[in-house]
Design goal:
Helix content is 20%, strand content 30%. The chain contains two helices and eight strands. The strands form two sheets. The protein has a four-stranded mixed β-sheet with strand order 1-4-3-2, covered by helices on one side. It has a four-stranded mixed β-sheet with strand order 5-8-7-6, with helices on one face. The longest helix has 12 residues, at 15-26. The N and C termini lie far apart (35 Å). 20% of the residues are buried.
């Protein structure tokens, strides 16, 4: 018995807007849209993807799950994401080699420093 990982679900007040933001941030493609869902993937037939699903209640606390990204150039990537509308956030991480950011709806994610080869 095996499991295939399909999506990470992100609850959102505006799935289309947030999904489009992430599609642009990651360079991914849109694979599905409806009034309540917006799904993106790295490529049309490549999984896992991110699926943004409408949830009308506001975010209440720090996310218990977040995504980590390894950029080629951390400073440049953080600046690019800030220009797209992400913000640096303090979730109590202290001084670290990674940068904690939040997307336009406040979902946290990390931009890691380069890892040793």
């Amino acid at each position: 018995m095996t499991l295939d990982w399909q999506n990470v679900i992100v609850h959102s007040a505006d799935p289309a807007a947030l999904g489009q933001w992430w599609a642009e941030a990651l360079g991914w493609v849109v694979v599905h849209t409806s009034d309540v869902e917006f799904a993106i993937r790295p490529e049309q037939d490549r999984r896992p993807g991110l699926e943004f699903v409408r949830l009308d209640e506001p975010k209440k606390a720090k996310s218990r799950l977040h995504l980590d990204f390894v950029p080629g150039d951390q400073d440049a990537e953080v600046a690019r994401l800030e220009a797209l509308g992400a913000q640096r956030v303090d979730i109590g991480q202290g001084e670290q080699s990674w940068v904690v950011m939040a997307d336009p709806e406040g979902n946290e994610f990390c931009v890691l420093g380069q890892r040793p080869q």
